[in-house]
Amino acid sequence: MMTREEILHHLTAPSAANLFAEARQIRQSTKGNGIFLRGLIELSSICQRNCLYCGMRHDNPKVHRYAMQDDEIVACAALAAQLDFGTVVLQAGECERLWTRERVSTLIRRIKAETGQKVTLSLGERSEADTAEWKAAGADRYLLRFETTDRTLFNQIHPGSPQTDEHPRVAQLLRMREQGYEIGSGVMLGIPGQTLDSVVTDLLTFQTLQLDMVGLGPYLRHPETPLGQSALTSEVPVSVDFTCRCYAITRLLLPNANIPSTTALSTLDPINGRTQGLSSGANVFMPNLTPAFYREGYQIYPGKICVIAPQADSLDALKATFTTLGLHQQNG
Ligand code: SAH
User: Fold this and answer.
1) Is 192 within 8 Å of 150 (Cβ atoms)?
2) What is the domain range of residue 198?
3) For the chain, how many structural domains are there in total?
4) CA 129 to ligand 1 center in whole angstroms
5) Who lines ligand 1 at CB under 6 A?
6) Is-above-0.70 flag for pTM?
7) CB under 8 Å to 264, separation ≥6 — which residues?
8) Can you name the residues that pair with 258 across neighbouring β-strands?
9) How confident is the model at residue 296 (pLDDT cuts 50, 70, 90)?
């Protein structure tokens, strides 16, 4: 059991070298040297929400809006199988008209039957009936970041969110756990208005929820969003070091969790981001399998690594990083 004070100390101590070493050791004992690769497929950039931080928000007129066809999506999953990945992550802007219950069910069935890949869904806030049917169709996991446990901040940055006592995203995660999903969540680090104290609560909440997967990335300003244009700052640093401290603390709190070294971390530091991430307890990497001609439309934050530097996203470079760190790709 880690106390709030211990976590705060890990977040702010002058050096985190010991913390990172301990996290690596725990990963080694729970996961070995294998790194899971999950193929990210960004189904569409059409979104009906207006999250204040996200470049894909409905009111940003400068986004190239696209939606992939089912055959294209299944072809991306087939590529994941060919590359020996094991899992695909279907992620999209929130749009129920486009991603209907029936259409997503059909997609899940096709991907499982035609490619054998496991399916993680990341389609935002959806009803209990939708996620139940998708589970029945064969979905394995659902990824829904709660973004922050600070309800005032959450409501500020998610206009139109229900004013319930319970955090709407946490409520959905708990429902999906009951439905048999492996559940993944996480937060952004350095959101304007976010406090260090609330990050401590976020980290402890990962443990309370016993998450199977935890995705953590630095908040990156998008100039075409209200939050990106505001002068508000955060007590929480947007840095590789701070993000990696959070990976390491998460590994200590949840030794068995799957923790990706995120694209946002690689975008913040294209040279060292993923190496640092994999050296602080992360055990998952999510290469982007979205067809190149769609990727520019999915700019949740600017300069997303695969758009500006395709070579940094290459599988060979990734595997070379694994080798340098004594790690290797593992199907799962
Ligand atoms: N519509 C889906 C997918 C959203 S994109 C959903 O809401 O779950 C996936 C994640 O990207 C979000 O959960 C958020 O944590 C992150 N994200 C969005 N905008 C960002 C930004 N400006 N900087 C860093 N991360 C961002």
Assistant:
1) no
2) 4-322
3) 1
4) 24
5) 53-54, 91, 93-94, 122, 124, 144-145, 147, 188, 217, 219-220, 222, 264, 300-301
6) yes
7) 188, 217, 218, 219, 220, 301
8) 213
9) confident
